[in-house]
Structures are given as structure tokens and as C-alpha cells.
């Protein structure tokens, strides 16, 4: 769990998914006169390895290849594509589901008997990306509370802690305020 996921009180079972989706920062707005710099935490195999290590997702000493990095980046793109949809629409878009399931299928889990401890799920992969299989997407409906900010200038993934789960922006005071102000000014210009 990162400081960011702790700061925004993302449940533990979604913290790695939240952090992984937000390794790509496409925000492009000006705040207090400063332009926000876009970035990608996963610029290369070394950065992906470090990201996985910080979260306890490195299960082997194997190296991450360029092909593995590309697979991880495709998984991230599929997750972000899925999370940008309204939760009520996510299950209805068959193409998005097919695409995401195809990516998730590259990170399968298998059941392993553990004697007195019963069964546990473990990664079927036995390479440097095996830890990515354990990024949990939650079985209790909390995934519907992971959303992408509705501001085109932001597109940050956030956890909706509101009781009705109807938030649209990662931060109403920033992204929401910018969108509302822009819309208000446009209405004023149109009526003038």
C-alpha cells in the first residue's frame, strides 16, 4: 500500500490495483500557476520491478523482460479503460470486458492445497510478473467504487468513499470546481 492509497483511504484489497492504475499520470492542468507534469512510473523494466518490490509483489529473482513490461502496460491500459466507464455500464460493454478478461487471463491463479490451512490461490505464472496475479480486484463490490475522474484534464483513478457512490471527480474542490466554473462561464457567454 502506498502513501497515496493510504492518504485517500483506499481499502487494502484495492490498494495495489489503485496504485497500479495510477502509475500513469496523464493530468494536464494548471494549478496555482504551475503546469502539472505528466509522467509514467513504469518507464522501463527496472521501474516495474521496483514498483512490484515496494508492494511485496516480487516472488522470484527473475528479470523483467521488455515483453513482460509490455504485457504489464497492456494490463494497465485495460484496467484504466474499464475504470473510466460508469460502474453501472461496465458489465454491459462486451468489448471492454473481453479485452480486460484477455489481459487478466495472462495472470491466472491456481488453487494450492496447504494441508491444515486448506486451499489458497497462488499465481500460475512462474516468472518475474507472477506477483501481478495477486493484485486483487475485490470480491465484495468495492471495485465499483474505483472510478476515473470525469475531468478530461485529470483522468486519475480514485476511490469513491461517498455514501451513495456517485462522485464524479477525484477532488470536487479541484477537478470538480474547474469543470463547474468552466461550464458556468460558457453558459454566461452563450446567454450574452
Polypeptide structure, described:
The protein has 192 residues and is α+β, with helices and mostly antiparallel strands. The protein has a single domain, classed as Jann2411-like fold, CATH 1.10.3300. The chain has 7 helices and 8 strands, in the order ααββββααααββββα. The chain has helices at residues 3-7, 12-21, 45-54, 66-83, 87-90, 94-104, 172-191; strands at 24-25, 30-31, 34-35, 39-40, 109-113, 119-123, 146-148, 157-159. It has a two-stranded antiparallel sheet. A two-stranded antiparallel ribbon has the order 2-3. A two-stranded antiparallel sheet has the order 5-6. A hairpin with a 2-residue loop joins β2 and β3 (34-35). It is globular, with a radius of gyration of 19 Å. It starts with a helix and ends with a helix. The mean pLDDT is 88.
Give structural attributes.
single chain; 192 residues; alpha+beta; Jann2411-like fold; two-stranded antiparallel ribbon; two-stranded antiparallel sheet; 7 helices; globular
